[in-house]
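Page 47, continued from p. 46.
Same chain as before, 91 aa.
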Amino acid sequence: MELKEAVAGTLESGDMLVRIGPGEGLQVELQSSVEAQFGRRIRAVIRETLEGLGVENATVRVVDKGALDCTIRARVTAAAVRASGKDVWKD
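Result:
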């Protein structure tokens, strides 16, 4: 799946800003005030979401402001859909 640069989310509390673009393999760069406590889980949710969407090659830059797993999935999905043009909500 080819990707272009795309962004989803905000820098508001409880949200995250996700930037996605072309890359080799899945590279996740995370900036979070709770990285020490939850960084491993945040990265796992990002990777699981992208792999579920069929994204194998991407660079993902994330600025987390305390997002819950459901928000992480939503923001990563929105960024991937915008980057790929693939509508994951249609059959």
